[in-house]
Amino acid sequence: MSNLIVVLMGGLSGERKISFLTGKACSKALIKKGYKVIDLDAKGYFVEELRKLKPKLVFNALHGKYGEDGFVQSILESLKIPYTHSGVLSSSLAMDKELSRLIFIKNNLKVPKYFLLQKDHQGNSNKKFNNKKIKFPIVIKPINEGSSLGVSICKNKKQFKNKYKKLMENYDRILVEEYIPGREIQVAVMGEKALGAIELVPRRQFYDYTAKYSNTAQTQHIMPAPLSPKKYKEILGLAKKAHELLGCRGITRSDFRFFKNKFYLLETNTQPGLTKLSLVPEIAQYCGIKFEDLIVWMTENASSNK
Fold this sequence. Notes:
3 domains; Dna Ligase, domain 1
């Protein structure tokens, strides 16, 4: 087997563009550290290309569907090629917002109240919205997307019906949850350690796709998150617990809302962004870990049979 590292990027999800940003940044870091690297777009006959290249390992820089839901992980397992980040099961569990929440609830991690709306076997949607269950404002989102794609805050039934109708054109299952108005805090976990917590203060309605990836959005990042030492320790512990419950490996980022002195876990991301505006590198930098060293650690942490 060669010493080649293939950085898998692009792909077929709605986060294709962001994946290229992550992939190029990781590729550049690895080359800078002396690794032999080839970039590969995960579309078309990329599996055949992987077979031909016979890399030492794959750095998985994909985001969204097929990249962080267990799909590409199962391909890499079948090819017996070590890869970065989490394995098949933990990736699929974390990506499915309902399954991961059931695990979180069972293990006493607080999540927003929610329920599912889904299409039946004939493709019709059961759009009965029980207003007694969760009061407006509400958040609606696809069950298995990342980067806040398709996420909307609805203040009334009219807004809900419009957003829901659009989402049902592209997705079979929609998560409806109570809107938690508190502070946005995210935590990076690296291996067996929670690195740190960062607070985000978006100028937009919430930390959406634009707030995450556009310089013009001017989202304020506060590192470390201004919490009491006790609360800071608590949120680190919650993120580590979520990481472990899902069986994650490598790097994860857990997203929380902090409201009325309580932390609400929204989700755990197994393939967090690694761009210039991304949070995990910023948290790592604050902890004294340079970007290149973070990427090298992830590379050396690569394995199969996860």
